[in-house]
Fold this sequence. Notes:
Blueprint: H1 4-10, E1 13-17, H2 23-33, E2 36-38, H3 43-49, E3 55-59, H4 65-80, E4 85-88, H5 96-108, E5 113-117, H6 118-125, H7 142-153, E6 157-160, E7 164-168, E8 171-175, H8 188-199, H9 207-227, H10 234-247, H11 250-256, E9 259-261
Parallel strand pairs: 1-2, 1-3, 3-4, 4-5, 5-6
Antiparallel strand pairs: 6-7, 7-8, 8-9
Helix pairs in contact: 2-8, 2-10, 6-7, 8-9, 9-10, 9-11
Amino acid sequence: MSSLKLLKEKAPLVICITNDVVKNFTANGLVALGASPAMSEFKDDLEDLLKYAGGLLINIGTLTDDNWQLYRDALKIAEKYNVPAVLDPVACGASAYRRHVVDDLLENYKISALRGNAGEIGSLVGMDIASKGVDSANVDNIGELALLANKKYNIPIVVTGEVDAIAVDGEVITIHNGSAMMPKVIGTGCLLGAVVASFIGLDKDNVFKSLETSLLAYNIAGEFAEKRPNGHLPGTYKVEFINSLYEVTDGDISLHKKVKKYV
């Protein structure tokens, strides 16, 4: 059974191929939570590291032709060693090039979970959701959006926004925890992708529970951070969010979770 206690006991190695803006924040967030991050971006190095990894994150935020090939190489190696991979399709609705890369990765490589905001996931399923670049967008029925993506790609889906949704094998829940301060700090969404990757390999027989635990731990930590002194200020919030990821417990999740079953 996936839990924060299990994550801290296993301290899974999580390979994060992510965008340049968020690497430090992502690494610190994972360490605070209890995982072991590695920001490796060299094929030969990945061949050695991925055999020991519990998860792989592919975040296309800093996209180049070279990085596109790196994503492909990493996913091939991860599949060889049966390492679950999480894809974060950053701003895939903002440019044709990004969409082409995401389509290639989803169609030709093994992706264990897709995590994006409503605008990104909406663009992939053909739902017209107004968004700007990498910014998130609001959607009236985020549970339905997650379900549409789950049916289209036949992989677990995590959609984030003011309300989050998880869809696995046609089963959907919505999560109503979180903080309005999260979008005020660059990298919170990208860190979530890495958190999902840190949990997804803990219990491969119960991916739904792993995803639920990852989002609840993350969102409840976000709530705690906002309530701390000066947590309403972005600079303070960023620091307190890392602190809260370090301190949040399974007991906190049980006490504060706000989860609704959609389907």
